[in-house]
Amino acid sequence: MQIKDHVGIVTGGASGLGEATVRRLVAQGGKAVIADMNAQRGEALAKELGDAARFVRCDVGVDTDAVAVVQAAQEAFGRIDILVNCAGIGTPAKAVGKDGPLPLAQFEKIIKVNLVGSFNLIRVAAAAMQGQQPNDLGERGVIINTASVAAYDGQIGQPAYAASKAGVVGMTLPLAREFARFGIRVVTIAPGLFLTPLLESLPKEAQDSLGVQVPFPPRLGKPDEFAQMVTSIVDNVMLNGETIRLDGAIRMAPK
Ligand SMILES: NC(=O)c1ccc[n+]([C@@H]2O[C@H](COP(=O)([O-])OP(=O)(O)OC[C@H]3O[C@@H](n4cnc5c(N)ncnc54)[C@H](O)[C@@H]3O)[C@@H](O)[C@H]2O)c1
User: Fold this and answer.
1) What is the residue range of the signal peptide feature (predicted)?
2) N or C: which end of the chain has fewer CB within 10 A?
3) Which of 26, 35, 143, 161 is catalytic?
């Protein structure tokens, strides 16, 4: 599917990997709906990008918010062709910390945003895509999720984050199989270490010491390299039902 004249919803689109994705979709002639909790950053980005972008405040963990986002995309741009799930949180916490067992609500919160939140948007967006006319290749839509290398090499302190991302990897194939008859593809990206606001807040030396752990290229990933992966997936109709590691060959150590 081409990006030009097509409409993408990007959750977490106000920052980091999502923001880079929004910028690339618009740069390639597409339209973007920025669906994020952060209204200040989201509205500023939409304003900067003009007619090609809209901001919709949303909590991906809330069922009615997903409906509102898809409706807003249809009202603003008439259709929805691409969903990119980037919204995510990752507060580290051990199962048993200094104060005893991790409060269960903290584990549930991460699962709710990263896993349930991704599924929430998928179920509503896919229903809308199913009602659209297919293109010449038979495609009605492309859904792209963001997992993490933590789905495979989760570190100490990441049981909730790793489980949430492994859940995203796990639902990729069954969803691709379910939506195949509608020509809707589902692909997941598992990024390694990318220089987004979280890591940008670290001193340069700390950034560099993380970067050299990457075999090649020995540096942190640039958000636009993630966005480039998104547009490659949209472009290539044979990519489906798979999770792609985008990580410079890093394998995370236990801690
Ligand atoms: N940066 C990395 O190195 C890296 C590596 C692997 C995976 N990831 C994943 O990539 C995704 C994006 O990460 P990032 O580094 O760009 O983070 P980021 O913090 O820069 O951006 C995340 C965005 O998600 C939004 N968000 C958080 N909770 C939300 C909710 N409930 N509803 C709607 N929006 C919500 C935030 O407001 C923010 O704008 C996350 O899923 C993260 O787990 C990032």
Assistant:
1) none
2) C
3) 161
Q: What percentage of the chain carries pLDDT values higher than 70?
A: 100
CB 25 within 8 A of CB 31: yes
Residue 198 has pLDDT above 90, yes or no: no
Q: What is the pLDDT of residue 199?
A: 86
Which pLDDT does position 240 carry in this prediction? 98
Rg, the chain, Cα only: 18
Domains and CATH numbers, the chain: 7-246 (3.40.50.720)
Ligand 1 within 6 A of 196 CB?
yes
Residue of 15, 115, 189 with the most ligand 1 atoms within 8 Å of its CB, for mutation: 15
Question: What is the CA(243)–ligand 1 centre distance, in A?
Answer: 18
**Average of per-residue pLDDT values in the chain:** 97
Closest CA to 80 of 30, 23, 37, 117: 30
The answer to whether 216 touches 179, Cβ cutoff 8 Å, is: no
- Which of 23, 64, 194 for mutating ligand 1's site (highest number of atoms within 8 Å of CB)? 194
Nearest 10 degrees: CA dihedral of 148, 26, 184, 191?
-10
Rounded distance from Cα 171 to ligand 1 centre (Å): 19
Rounded distance from Cα 142 to ligand 1 centre (Å): 20
**161: annotated active-site residue:** yes
